[in-house]
């Protein structure tokens, strides 16, 4: 076949595939060049045919997939190897042909040159980091890639960085989506003008080759797709096909990246209908094409789509009889919308469906235009490509290719139309998909690019009926999961709702659709079309009604529900996303008067839908009991459009309101929700589980409230303003089930409510009324006022961070509404109402974030309890707001007691809602208020202060809003004949307040006390007559009143409703069996509201006649009743304020108040106290007293604890700290006494019952991090910057040790240095002691304790029983004397020679380990603990493993580590003297005992004891050095501090002071000699010879041994004998910078060399002998420490400048011993001068350790590290982290870098910090601490402009370093206090 094809190509034989590759390439190029030439001729038919034939052969679709499928005929078809080879071959051909004979890369470059790069268009996938700038964005979806963002100028803009969820594309350069000012430098130029036009022949080949190539790809896709047998193609098969096609699709993707010129060619190819028709029609003779066409048709059919043969209407087909019938046939398999059944549902169909699964409802197919759902016709490659992209469930590569083409405008339009045409199909596929999440993301990735562009969206709306398609598809999606609604009338309901348990809702599968819909509705032109289209509105309301009443809750009355359903998440999400957000989108376009018509349309269809809904659920007038649904989207649509109409469009409210009957129905369900909220909070729904509380909270939560509770309350306000007020009020109390409670009788029966719920339900009802009457959110407040009120409410509950405020303030959910979070108005309102509190910290406490707190004037004037109650999710927040208010009043001195919620003046009502205030002036409410006041005064049960507070609030609201002037009221005083119903004469509260009510007839239970009294009937008849006259108030029944009103209205509207209503009402409320026990009694009341208020005042104040009308003293008060005196206070203040307002509104009231006050009120009758009651009273009193006692004790305990915590937990405060509890009182007591914190006994520590210190042992490498410069290293933020660890203390010491070990005897090397710079063991204590046996039993109890602890008891970890500080061992206290008054401290007058001998003898005595006592066992075990604290590699430095020298070295190094660390904690020097906490809580003394005890087990051979070399002259044997292979380390190379520790720990403890001083003096002589030697090596040749001569002259003077010049010259001359100075070439001199050495600088140099030793020695002396450290200036530190250590002779005068040499006290003649020391070096340096010199110069000046210095702005770190590849696995880590100690970049949790089950961070923490790691997590901006086997999140050191962290970079705002926080972190690292200060530790199981 190959040959035949080749022959067709003009005789020029292309080589066979078997030839070697290079030849092939050449030949391809030649063929391509030939063809290009042929095609360039004017008559190019022959060329075209040739090319076609070649392509036929190369791109034959049979080959690769046959091979992939089975491989039988692969060999026959394709000459090459496996399938891969053939495909590569084809691609190579294509590349050659496109390039037309040239090189492919050059071709690419040439095409790129013609790219008019006006748009960026970079496409990214999920998890890419992009930016969004709200200042520059026109569309809310605008996004920029990092490069364009940083190249543009966005300073001061409102931008954030975000991690893309679904993928996206960069909009830079697209002026439809963003403002041009935000374009980056590359995309600013409108460069189309100056790009030359493309030469014709450049892309000529592409135009011929690409159609075939794309067709070939489509054939592959057709071939590869097999209609699955079961349900959806198995992922595996599809992925296999896609993997094979990977190179082809990548090739296309690369083409799109060549720029505009190539994109336009591709667009031509993809959209050309002729090409498509020619190639794919399947009519040709080619069998293969035919076959593939058949597969395509099968795929179409199986998708439930039809292929209409000749109706070629573009886009969506016109419905026609033919297609629709076809459609129905093709549609069966797809869904169950058409009366058929889903395959998944077949088991339900035979009627035996399982219990609990509610039957799905199917709608008939008549609901919509069928063609939208199932007709597709493809007319171009683009359309079929998209079809397969959908079929294969949006493979990422295909999506990227399709999106990469978008910068081409023509393509964008074509693709958008194609996308819309396939829209229904996409959603069908999505619904069936198994991977709906990934697929959703990819769909939105595409659609957001298309629909964000208004122009484009408008075009497709007009041309392709986009809106119809979307609404239809939405309906179609939801119809598959409808069930019958059980609301109201379960049996006969015709209403259907979505089933929230279905996967579609549960998994939010509909969100891509809804998000597209919201996106297109944000464009004005599109939204207008929607609002004008009546058909669409009807369909839409139909859709919304599916959600009306979903997720119905039924109250469980008997037992607890067994399974708590969590469907409410789905329900709330669905209402918010599918109903509310489109609603806000539409509302944003109804802002001006011209849009009135739209509102009328929506309202009209909304009301129709509501009417249908009421009919469907058979609703008349009573809601079914014990049911509630929180979802009433139709009500809310109606409410929000009403609100908008009045607020923005100046519509007359009444013109859009329905009749009274409809209003009555409208108010029922929202009111039911309010009542249910109260029931839920009263725990009446407790048997429904926690989820019902969850619903109640979500309903008011900030993201939902303005789409749920706010519209509900507004709708109720509208209903209340238009309905009869008496009817409304009685409905409220009936809904809240407290009607029976509202009686004057002291006892009553409530048939519908348990007694324990009455009080909270009554509070609920009153609170609801207060909210209803005082909330103005939709009744006249401007947007800014609303924002301010919301903000004040949130800030009053708690101080808030900026981001939580943004989150809590309900913003209009539609992004284009204008109030964008963080917008100008938000910031300005915030600064007006709140003060910023900068982030602070307590050194040992938690870290605060920057907070906003309300200003004082806000508390004073704007605190609004009503708003707070409305917005609180948790009831405790209301309390919190009140507590803060109380605190403010106390602090500002405005009110000392417990205040009541303040009454706040409201903004004025919009005229349309004036009717709302009639509620305050209706008799029903007044009767309720009167009754409640009376009940409170008489102390009836179930009433609370809260009830009274709300009653007074309502009265005050009524007084504030009283309408009518009181002109006529003076006349009407003429007696009772005005009173028809004998309660109140009129409806105005002001006049009703003074109306006296004499008698009330009540229904009471037989048992009530009222019945027992003589009824007034038995008294004289005239009395009775007067009673009749004054009209005994009848029993007032709210229910009856309400019925009556309702009846009137219904009769007015329709007579036939009568029959329906009557039976319903009667049956419900009379509880069976309750009637007979009620009897009627008549109560004498004789009170008015005013008199009740005055009596209340007396009652509240606890004094008789406490109320005195203030206007009697100052008449002015009535004229301006706004008096600050009354604005804050408790109930008494409230009553006074109300009386004042009543008086100022009417003269009558004023007179009556005065009258009442004149009558001295008779005392309230004392209750008769029965014996039983007395008993309970006594009990109460006793309880009260007990409570007070308890409080007192607790307070005392708390203060004790507090003072203890202050002393124990404080880490950095040097002041109030108590030393360890070691008694220091009487000098004669020599035994130390310890308190055990477990058993509480105190006593000495003894051999049998030792006491120990609670200690924490931890390995530390902090010392090793010291460097020799003060500036900390910077964290690298570019490839150039690197950190090398060569100059750290640990590295320098390591090098020194290995150098010594190279040339000297191993055992001697291990005595010449200290280890522990890395992995040293640090011991710290909290200072508490316990008996060791007590500790063991404590550990046992911890072991058996099942509580989850943050520590591992098996590893010996515990917390101190007293202060709860973390610890892991106990350090035994050595029995014996107290540190201070120590008999050994007395100075003796022995000469230094005697002391030296004594020291030598004491060291020579072998230290036998004491007999087996408990103490010695503990000493041994703690030594084991110390060893196990650090890793083996930090203990074993010997060349012979397991040598005892290792242990010896390790033990004295532990002492060294602890001394050095304490020095660092003191700031690196001892200038501050003894005042350091570290010293007071130190355990060094005990540690020394343990170490000394163990070290004395190893005796040093007296031959090798360095002490002899220091104090005796030996015979110098010149031969000695050469006999041994490895000599001992010369004494001048020894580390003097190590020698000191060895000498002291080898002495028997306790040590005598004079022996200590002796050792120090001897060692100082060695140290000084080392200093001189080091100095001599550092200086230049000339300096050396000058000094040598100068010193030699003074050698004979008397104090030559104490003159540094003489000694220096001697050292130089001695060292000269070796070859030490000789090999100094010229380069050496150049290296050491020439310093002019003055005597002062030399003295300073020598002192600096000696200081570290003096500091450590002084610390040691301080711990061993308890001597204080003197404080001093830095420059005199040397002399002070020297005299403190006894080095300075006592007669030393301080006049002349201090000379360090004067401290020398030579035990043997100086020159002899120096000669001896230098001789040891001589023999070494003769052979190794370089090393000899290096070892002499010891770096002793280490600066304090620091963490790396971090850059100011977090973005610098993020941009460098989040894309950086890991050096180990060379991948970009998913969770990158960087070590803040050494700058190493690691993969957190990365399995790629795991070694022996340790992940990289844990491993690094062991290598870098010996188990302590401090890592900055790049993607989260937080710091994580690893300590051993535990870890904790420390927090962030980067804060945003508002002082708060941004963990996980969720908000993506710019972050800046917080230096104070970083200092705290560093401090905790250096002081090893991570374990104590951070509380939340958890095990990491080596997985970090």
Please give a handful of descriptors for the protein shown.
6-stranded antiparallel β-sheet; alpha+beta; flat; 1888 residues; disordered N terminus; 3-stranded antiparallel β-sheet
Summarize the structure.
By secondary structure, this protein is of the alpha+beta class. It has 76 helices and 29 strands.
Give the number of helices.
76
* Cα shape: flat
- Summarize the amount of helix as a percent range: 40-55%
Strand order of the largest sheet: 23-22-24-25-26-29
Mean pLDDT metric: 79
Distance between the termini: 60 Å
The helix-and-strand class reads alpha+beta
Give the biggest beta sheet: 6 strands, antiparallel
Spatial extent as radius of gyration: 46 Å
Topology, number of strands:
29
Estimate the strand proportion.
5-15%
Describe this structure in words.
The protein is α+β, with helices and mostly antiparallel strands and 1888 residues long. The protein contains 76 helices and 29 strands. A 6-stranded antiparallel sheet has the order 23-22-24-25-26-29. Strands 3-2-4 form a 3-stranded antiparallel sheet. A hairpin with a 6-residue loop joins strand 15 and strand 16. Helix 10 packs across helix 12 (260-271), helix 51 crosses helix 52 and helix 64 packs antiparallel against helix 65 (1553-1578). The protein is flat, with a radius of gyration of 46 Å. The N terminus is likely disordered.
Map the helices and strands.
Blueprint: H1 2-8, H2 21-40, H3 45-58, H4 62-69, H5 74-77, H6 83-99, H7 104-112, E1 123-124, E2 129-133, E3 144-145, H8 146-151, E4 159-163, E5 168-169, H9 185-188, H10 204-224, H11 235-256, H12 260-271, H13 273-280, H14 287-302, H15 321-330, E6 360-361, H16 370-374, H17 381-391, H18 396-404, H19 409-421, H20 423-432, H21 436-451, H22 454-464, H23 466-479, E7 482-484, E8 496-498, H24 503-506, H25 511-521, H26 524-532, H27 534-545, E9 553-554, H28 567-587, H29 596-616, E10 627-628, H30 633-648, H31 660-681, H32 690-700, H33 709-722, H34 725-735, H35 755-774, H36 783-797, H37 802-808, H38 824-833, E11 834-837, E12 851-854, H39 856-862, H40 865-871, H41 875-892, H42 923-937, H43 945-960, H44 989-992, E13 997-1005, H45 1009-1012, H46 1021-1029, H47 1038-1053, H48 1057-1069, E14 1078-1087, H49 1089-1101, H50 1116-1119, H51 1131-1145, H52 1147-1158, H53 1171-1209, E15 1234-1235, E16 1242-1243, E17 1251-1260, H54 1289-1303, H55 1306-1312, E18 1320-1331, H56 1332-1344, E19 1358-1359, E20 1366-1367, E21 1369-1372, H57 1392-1404, H58 1414-1429, H59 1444-1465, ...
Antiparallel strand pairs: 1-5, 2-3, 2-4, 6-7, 7-8, 9-10, 11-12, 13-14, 15-16, 17-18, 17-21, 19-20, 22-23, 22-24, 24-25, 25-26, 26-29, 27-28
């Amino acid at each position: 076949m190959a040959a035949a094809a080749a022959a067709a190509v003009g005789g020029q034989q292309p080589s066979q595939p078997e030839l070697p590759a290079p030849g092939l390439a050449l030949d391809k190029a030649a063929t391509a060049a030939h063809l290009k030439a042929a095609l360039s001729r004017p008559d190019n038919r022959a060329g075209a045919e040739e090319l076609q034939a070649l392509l036929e052969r190369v791109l034959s679709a049979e080959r690769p997939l046959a091979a992939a499928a089975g491989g039988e005929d692969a060999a026959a078809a394709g000459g090459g190897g496996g399938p891969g080879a053939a495909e590569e071959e084809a691609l190579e051909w294509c590349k050659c042909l496109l390039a037309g004979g040239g090189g492919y890369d050059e071709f690419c470059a040439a095409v790129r040159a013609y790219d008019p790069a006006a748009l960026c268009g970079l496409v990214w996938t999920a998890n890419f980091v992009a930016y969004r700038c709200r200042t520059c964005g026109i569309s809310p979806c605008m996004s920029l890639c990092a490069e364009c963002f940083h190249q543009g100028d966005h300073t001061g803009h409102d931008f954030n960085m975000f991690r893309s969820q679904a993928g996206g594309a960069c909009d830079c350069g697209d002026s439809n989506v963003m403002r041009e000012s935000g374009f980056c430098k590359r995309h600013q130029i409108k460069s189309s003008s100056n790009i030359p036009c493309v030469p014709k022949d450049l892309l000529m080949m592409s135009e011929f080759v690409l159609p075939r190539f794309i067709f070939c790809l489509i054939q592959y896709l057709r071939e590869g797709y097999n209609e699955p047998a079961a349900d959806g193609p198995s992922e595996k098969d599809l992925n296999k096909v896609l993997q094979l096609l990977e190179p082809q699709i990548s090739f296309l993707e690369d083409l799109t990246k060549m720029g505009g010129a190539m994109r336009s060619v591709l667009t031509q190819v993809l959209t050309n209908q002729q090409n498509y028709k020619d190639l794919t029609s399947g009519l040709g003779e080619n069998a293969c094409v035919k076959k593939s066409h058949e597969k395509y048709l099968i795929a179409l059919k199986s998708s439930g789509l039809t292929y209409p043969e000749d109706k070629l209407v573009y886009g969506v087909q016109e419905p026609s009889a033919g297609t629709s019938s076809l459609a129905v046939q093709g549609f069966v398999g797809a869904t169950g919308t058409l009366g058929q059944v889903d395959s998944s549902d077949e088991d339900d169909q035979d009627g035996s469906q399982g219990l609990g699964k509610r039957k799905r409802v199917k709608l008939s197919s008549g609901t919509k235009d069928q063609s939208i759902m199932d007709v597709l016709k493809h007319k171009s490659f683009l359309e079929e490509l998209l079809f397969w992209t959908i079929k294969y469930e949006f493979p990422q590569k295909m999506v990227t290719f399709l999106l990469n083409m978008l910068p081409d405008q023509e393509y964008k339009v074509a693709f958008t139309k194609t996308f819309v045409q396939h829209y229904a199909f996409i959603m069908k596929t999505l619904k069936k998909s198994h991977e709906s999440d990934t697929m959703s993301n990819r769909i939105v990735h595409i659609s957001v690019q298309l629909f964000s562009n208004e122009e484009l969206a408008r075009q497709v709306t007009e041309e392709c009926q986009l809106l119809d398609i979307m609404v239809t598809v939405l309906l179609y999606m939801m119809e598959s999961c409808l069930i019958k609604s059980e609301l109201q009338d379960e049996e006969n309901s015709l209403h259907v709702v979505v089933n929230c348990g279905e996967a579609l809702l549960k998994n939010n599968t509909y969100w891509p659709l809804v998000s597209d819909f919201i996106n297109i509705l944000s464009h004005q032109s599109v939204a207008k079309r929607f609002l004008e289209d009546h058909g669409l509105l009807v369909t839409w309301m139909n859709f919304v009604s599916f959600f009306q009443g979903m997720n119905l809750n039924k109250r469980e009355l008997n037992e607890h529900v067994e399974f708590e359903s969590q469907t409410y998440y789905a329900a709330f999400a669905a209402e918010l996303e599918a109903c509310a957000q489109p609603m806000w989108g539409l509302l944003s376009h109804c802002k001006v008067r011209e849009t009135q018509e739209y509102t009328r349309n929506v309202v009209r269809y909304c009301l129709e839908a509501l009417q249908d809904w009421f009919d469907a659920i058979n609703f008349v007038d009573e809601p079914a009991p014990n049911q509630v649904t929180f979802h009433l989207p139709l009500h809310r649509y109606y409410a929000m459009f009403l609100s908008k109409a009045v607020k923005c469009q100046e519509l007359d409210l009444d013109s859009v309101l329905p009749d009274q009957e409809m209003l009555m129905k409208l108010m029922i369900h929202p009111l039911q929700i309010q009542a249910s909220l109260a029931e839920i909070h009263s725990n009446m729904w407790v048997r429904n589980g926690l989820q019902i509380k969850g619903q109640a909270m979500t309903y008011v939560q900030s993201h939902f409230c303005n789409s749920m509770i706010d519209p509900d309350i507004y709708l109720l306000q509208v209903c209340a303003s238009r309905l009869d007020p008496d009817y409304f009020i009685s409905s409220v109390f009936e809904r809240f089930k407290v009607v029976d409670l509202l009686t004057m009788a002291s006892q009553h029966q409530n048939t519908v409510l348990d007694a324990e719920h009455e009080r909270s339900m009554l509070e609920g009802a009153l609170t609801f009324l207060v909210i209803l009457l005082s909330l103005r959110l939709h009744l006249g407040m401007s947007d800014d006022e609303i924002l301010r009120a919301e903000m004040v409410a949130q800030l009053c509950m708690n101080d808030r961070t900026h981001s939580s405020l943004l989150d809590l303030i309900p913003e209009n959910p539609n992004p284009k509404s204008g109030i964008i979070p963080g917008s100008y108005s938000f910031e300005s309102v915030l600064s007006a109402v709140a003060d910023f509190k900068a982030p602070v910290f307590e050194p040992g406490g938690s870290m605060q974030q920057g907070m906003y707190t309300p200003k004082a004037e806000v508390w004073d004037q704007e605190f609004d309890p009503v708003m707070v109650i409305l917005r609180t999710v948790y009831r405790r927040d209301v309390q919190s707001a009140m507590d803060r208010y109380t605190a403010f009043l106390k602090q500002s001195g405005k009110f000392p007691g417990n205040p009541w919620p303040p009454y706040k003046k409201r903004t004025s009502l919009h005229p349309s809602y004036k009717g709302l205030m009639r509620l305050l002036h209706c008799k029903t409410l007044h009767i309720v208020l009167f009754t409640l006041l009376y009940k409170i005064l008489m102390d009836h049960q179930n009433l609370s202060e809260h009830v009274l507070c709300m009653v007074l609030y309502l009265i005050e609201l009524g007084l504030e809003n009283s309408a009518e002037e009181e002109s006529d009221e003076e006349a009407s005083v003429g007696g009772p004949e005005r009173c028809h119903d004998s309660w109140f004469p009129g409806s105005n509260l002001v006049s009703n307040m003074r109306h006296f009510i004499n008698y009330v007839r009540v229904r009471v239970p037989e048992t009530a006390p009222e019945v027992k009294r003589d009824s007034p009937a038995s008294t004289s008849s005239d009395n009775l007559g007067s009673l009749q006259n004054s009209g005994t108030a009848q029993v007032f029944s709210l229910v009856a009143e309400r019925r009556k009103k309702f009846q009137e209205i219904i009769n007015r509207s329709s007579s036939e409703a009568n029959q329906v209503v009557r039976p319903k009402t009667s049956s419900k409320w009379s509880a069976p069996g309750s009637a007979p026990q009620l009897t009627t009694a008549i109560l004498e009341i004789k009170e008015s509201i005013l008199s009740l208020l005055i009596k209340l005042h007396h009652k509240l104040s606890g004094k008789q006649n406490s109320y005195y009308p203030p206007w009697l003293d100052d008449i002015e008060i009535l004229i301006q009743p706004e008096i600050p005196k009354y604005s804050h206070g408790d109930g008494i203040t409230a009553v006074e304020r109300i009386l004042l307002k009543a008086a100022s509104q009417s003269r009558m009231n004023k007179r009556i108040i005065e009258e009442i006050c004149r009558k001295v009120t008779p005392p309230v009758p004392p209750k008769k106290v029965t014996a039983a009651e007395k008993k309970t009273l006594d009990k109460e009193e006793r309880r009260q007293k007990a409570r007070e006692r308890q409080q007192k004790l607790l307070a005392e305990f708390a203060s004790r604890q507090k003072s203890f915590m202050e002393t124990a937990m404080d880490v950095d405060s040097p002041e109030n700290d108590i030393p360890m509890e070691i008694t220091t009182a009487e000098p004669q007591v020599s035994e130390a006494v310890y308190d055990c914190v477990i058993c509480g006994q105190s006593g000495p520590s003894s051999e049998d019952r030792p006491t120990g210190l609670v200690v924490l042992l931890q390995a530390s490498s902090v010392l090793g991090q010291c460097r020799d410069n003060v500036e900390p290293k910077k964290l690298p933020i570019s490839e150039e910057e690197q950190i090398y660890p060569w100059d750290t203390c640990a590295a320098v010491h390591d090098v020194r040790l290995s150098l010594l070990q190279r040339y000297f005897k191993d055992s001697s090397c291990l005595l010449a240095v200290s280890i522990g710079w890395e992995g040293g063991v640090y011991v710290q204590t909290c200072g508490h002691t316990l008996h060791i046996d007590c500790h063991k039993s404590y550990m046992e109890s911890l072991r058996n304790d099942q509580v989850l602890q943050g520590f591992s008891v098996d590893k010996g970890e515990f917390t101190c029983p007293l202060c709860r500080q973390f610890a892991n061992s106990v350090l035994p206290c050595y029995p014996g004397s107290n540190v201070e008054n120590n008999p050994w401290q007395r100075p003796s007058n022995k000469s230094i020679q005697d002391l030296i001998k004594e020291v030598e003898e004491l060291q020579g005595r072998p230290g036998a380990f004491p007999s087996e006592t408990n103490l010695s066992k503990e000493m041994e075990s703690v030594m084991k603990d110390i060893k196990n604290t650090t890793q083996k590699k930090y203990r074993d430095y010997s060349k012979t493993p397991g040598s005892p020298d290792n242990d010896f070295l390790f033990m004295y190094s532990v002492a060294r580590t602890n001394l050095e660390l304490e020095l660092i904690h003191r700031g690196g020097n001892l200038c501050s003297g003894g005042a350091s906490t570290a010293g007071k809580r130190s355990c060094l003394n005990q540690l020394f005992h343990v170490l000394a005890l163990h070290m004395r087990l190893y005796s040093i051979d007296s031959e090798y004891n360095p002490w002899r070399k220091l104090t005796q002259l030996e015979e110098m044997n010149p031969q000695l050095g050469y006999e041994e292979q490895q000599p001992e380390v010369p004494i001048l190379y020894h580390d003097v501090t190590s020698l000191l520790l060895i000498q002291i720990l080898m002495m028997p403890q306790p040590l005598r002071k004079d022996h200590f001083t002796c050792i120090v003096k001897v060692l100082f002589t060695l140290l000084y000699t080392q200093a001189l030697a080091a100095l001599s090596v550092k200086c230049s040749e000339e300096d050396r010879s000058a000094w040598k001569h100068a010193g030699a002259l003074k050698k004979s003077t008397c104090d030559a041994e104490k003159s540094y010049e003489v000694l220096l010259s001697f050292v130089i001359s001695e060292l000269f004998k070796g070859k030490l100075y000789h090999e100094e070439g010229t380069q050496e001199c150049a290296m050491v910078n020439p310093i002019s050495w003055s005597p002062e600088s030399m003295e300073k140099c020598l002192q600096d060399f000696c200081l570290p030793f003096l500091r450590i020695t002084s610390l040691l002396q301080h711990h061993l002998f308890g001597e204080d450290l003197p404080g001093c200036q830095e420059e005199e530190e040397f002399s002070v420490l020297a005299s403190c250590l006894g080095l300075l002779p006592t007669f030393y005068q301080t006049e002349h400048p201090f000379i360090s040499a004067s401290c020398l006290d030579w035990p043997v003649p100086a020159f002899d011993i120096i000669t001896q020391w230098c001789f040891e070096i001589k023999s070494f340096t003769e052979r190794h001068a370089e090393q000899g010199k290096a070892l002499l110069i010891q770096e002793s000046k280490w600066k304090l350790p620091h963490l790396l210095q971090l850059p100011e702005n977090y973005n610098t770190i993020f941009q460098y590290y989040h894309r950086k590849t890991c050096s180990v696995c060379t991948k970009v880590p998913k969770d990158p982290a960087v070590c803040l100690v050494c700058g190493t970049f690691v993969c957190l949790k990365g399995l790629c870098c795991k070694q022996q089950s340790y992940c990289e961070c844990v491993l690094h923490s062991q290598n870098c910090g010996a188990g302590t790691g401090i890592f900055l997590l790049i993607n989260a901006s937080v710091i994580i601490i690893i300590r051993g086997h535990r870890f904790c999140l420390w927090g962030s050191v980067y804060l945003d402009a508002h002082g708060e962290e941004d963990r996980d970079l969720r908000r993506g705002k710019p972050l800046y370093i917080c230096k104070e926080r970083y200092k705290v972190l560093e401090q905790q690292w250096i002081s090893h206090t991570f374990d104590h200060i951070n509380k939340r530790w958890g095990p990491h199981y080596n997985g970090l």
